[in-house]
Structure formats: structure tokens, C-alpha cells
């Protein structure tokens, strides 16, 4: 088991050093939806062009009643004749997670958002929710990914009812300028 983990780690490292190192990550579209606008208001959910290769994601919303029981569902999709689920889906309890980070995949995802948002505090979640110029580079991704078109869907359930859904589309291409 330990050997397998070691080999897997070595494989990931080699992937990073090798072919896929010269890749470009770009958000291509974003769609946010509130399922109850008297609880969650979306003011802004938009991509901004940084340069030809880069876009950043901005979000501004208001939670009108405190959320104390929040479940997050994250699913990655890859486009192949339509978007098909890719890798696995994660579900975690956000309030529990913020007390003690327990889900290793959620930790990786949370790390990507943390520095660009005001989400890094314990529950309840209420008031202004911001993501400010979130931009990612291929090298910052928690796992090496193939080239292609992807979608990450993040669904937030408050008191077990879906309240907010975010679909972030992105593209990974070989970056010939860097290879
Ligand atoms: C929307 O949220 C408010 C505040 O929590 C709640 O009172 C209301 O019942 C919700 N509406 C629906 C349709 O779930
Ligand atoms: C968020 O949206 C609200 C309402 O439109 C606005 O008053 C506020 O300035 C916005 N905040 C940011 C940081 O964009």
C-alpha cells in the first residue's frame, strides 16, 4: 500500500515535470443560480479577461438569513459528446469542515478559493459573500489534468434544500509558447 502511494506520488511528480507542465488553464464561462432569492441574492457572477490566456472569476452575493447547516456538493465534468462526470463527486458539511478540515479533496478545493474570497470563517454564513479576481494557473491545480474542456459544478444546500448552484467552465490547452 505504502509502495503504491509512493509510486503514485512519483507518477504525479513526473507528470508535472513532463509533457503536461506546459499547459494553460482558462475559465471560459460561469453560470450562477439562486434557487431562493429571498435567501440568497446574486449581484455579480462574472468572468473578467485578464489577458488573452487568462480570465478571473468574480462573485458578489448576499445571504439574507444566516446559514448554519450548509452542505456542499462538488462535481467535475469533462466534455466528451456533452459534459460527463469525471473523477469523483465530493460532498461535505461546510460548517463542520470550517471547524476542522476533514475531507482531503475539499481541502484541496478550498485552498484554491481561500485567498480570493471572504469564506474563511466559521459558520454562520450571512451577509456579503465575495470572490475577488480568482485566477488559477495550471501549475496551481491540485492534480495533473489532461487537456480538454471541463466544468466544475458547486451546489450549496442550506437546511438540505438547494440554494445556490455555480457552474464554472474551463479549458486546459497545451501552451506552445512555454514548451
Ligand atoms: C426562501 O428562504 C426563506 C428564508 O429562509 C424562507 O422563509 C422561504 O420559505 C424560502 N422559500 C422557499 C420557496 O423555499
Ligand atoms: C456587491 O454588490 C453590492 C450590491 O450591488 C454593491 O453595493 C457592492 O459594492 C458590491 N461589492 C463589491 C466588492 O463589488
TrEMBL record:
InterPro entries noted in UniProt: DUF1091
Signal peptide as annotated in the record: 1-22
Alphabetical UniProt keywords: Signal
Pfam families with a match to the protein in the record: DUF1091 (PF06477)
PANTHER family: DAEDALUS ON 3-RELATED, DAEDALUS ON 3-RELATED-RELATED
Name by which UniProt lists this protein: MD-2-related lipid-recognition domain-containing protein
Species: Drosophila virilis (Fruit fly)
